[in-house]
Design goal:
Number of helices: 17
Number of strands: 2
Oligomer: single chain
Helix content: 55-70%
Structural class: mainly alpha
Strand content: under 5%
Shape: elongated
Largest sheet: 2 strands, antiparallel
Distance between the termini: 98 Å
Radius of gyration: 44 Å
């Protein structure tokens, strides 16, 4: 069918002019044919190789409020098929909650420590308070005994006088040295606790145990009872507070010592420091060494050397798993135990042997200590 080239109207067959616009058909006629209901087929689809496709961009990271725990399904969907790691926010998501029965022993979440900074050193608030209590107790004892310190020069001069004055002055000096030993132990305990050293907690427990024995074996007094209660409260905080336990029970730091090593160090420091105090207190007796006997002189020499060596070895174990320090500590703790076995009797011998066993057995027999020292054949 023909159409007018000017207006597009259908033309009558063999017409010479358009019936609509009058234009001559010869000038504007178009021989375009329109086929109704015709659909052109699509061109054939050519296969495309996957290697020619551009790499797909990774999906944008899913933003979630800090602290919100993602579900297991969401966590699996947030990874990419190409192994793209999760974003940093997802890596820092908190671990699943523990059952209520275990949650109270697991400690507070990371980042929730209650800390205090003193003199440029940061420490957990509970441990810092307990350390301050021990330091104040040492200072208070020094001030309370200020009248005693005035007589020390006279007591020292009396040691070189006649025998009666010597014995009297010696006894008083032993009492003074015992008090100084307690002051030093309190101050050292405060120092270790402020550093976050686990042995400091053990020494605090030893002090509390000693005060407990005095509380039930000696005549009770209001001051002694008050000191005992404060000491017990401090030990309870160190062992029960989750913030304190997170610092003092940490497996990393301070050479990563297992609990058995800390136990050996605590017993060794407590016992050998007492031996050292006894050696110093008995030094004036060397004036009558001939009457005291060879055993007295041997204890002063070997006991003093063993105490000094053992304390240095125990300190060395706080830095690293030193096998030489383990041997020296074992020998040092055995020396006073042997002297006690030879010259002592009854409860004293049992106490000395028990403490020596409490130091040596954890160092050599317990699996966690043997692994820490790298012994051949250690389990685990």
């Amino acid at each position: 069918m023909n159409y007018c080239g000017a207006c597009g109207e259908k033309l009558v067959p063999e017409a010479r002019f358009c019936g609509e616009c009058g234009i001559a058909v010869g000038a504007w006629a178009s021989d375009v044919r329109v086929e109704e209901n015709r659909v052109d087929p699509l061109p054939p689809i050519r296969p495309v190789s996957p290697a020619t496709l551009p790499p797909a961009a990774p999906p944008p990271p899913i933003q979630r409020p800090v602290g919100q725990q993602p579900s297991a399904a969401a966590s699996s969907e947030e990874g990419t098929p190409n192994g793209v790691a999760l974003n940093d926010m997802e890596k820092q998501s908190p671990a699943p909650a523990l059952p209520p029965a275990l949650a109270r022993w697991a400690g507070p979440p990371l980042g929730t420590q209650r800390e205090i900074t003193v003199g440029g050193r940061t420490q957990v608030l509970e441990v810092a308070i307990v350390a301050a209590v021990h330091a104040v107790a040492a200072l208070w004892l020094l001030i309370a005994l200020k009248d005693v310190w005035v007589f020390i020069p006279d007591l020292v001069r009396a040691l070189f006088a006649d025998e009666f004055s010597f014995v009297f002055a010696w006894v008083l000096l032993i009492v003074v040295l015992v008090l100084l030993y307690v002051v030093g132990l309190l101050a050292y305990c405060a120092y270790l606790l402020f550093k976050g050293e686990p042995v400091g907690r053990g020494l605090a427990a030893v002090l509390c145990l000693t005060l407990t024995m005095l509380q039930f074996t000696q005549a009770r007094s209001t001051s002694l009872t008050l000191i005992w209660l404060v000491s017990a409260a401090c030990v309870a905080v160190l062992f029960l507070s989750p913030w304190a336990r997170r610092i003092l029970d940490r497996p990393v730091g301070f050479a990563g010592r297992p609990p058995s090593i800390v136990l050996s160090q605590t017993l060794a420091v407590s016992y050998l420091s007492l031996v050292a105090a006894m050696v110093v207190a008995l030094l004036p007796g060397l004036r009558f060494a001939g009457d005291a006997g060879a055993g007295f002189v041997a204890f002063e020499l070997f006991g003093g050397a063993a105490a000094a060596t053992g304390l240095l070895a125990a300190r060395r174990l706080s830095a690293e798993a030193d096998r030489t320090a383990r041997v020296l500590l074992s020998i040092s703790i055995a020396v006073p135990a042997v002297f006690n076995l030879i010259s002592g009797s009854g409860a004293g011998v049992a106490t000395g042997l028990g403490i020596a066993a409490g130091v040596v057995v954890p160092l050599w027999a317990l699996p966690d200590a043997r692994r820490w020292f790298g012994d051949t054949g250690a389990a685990g």
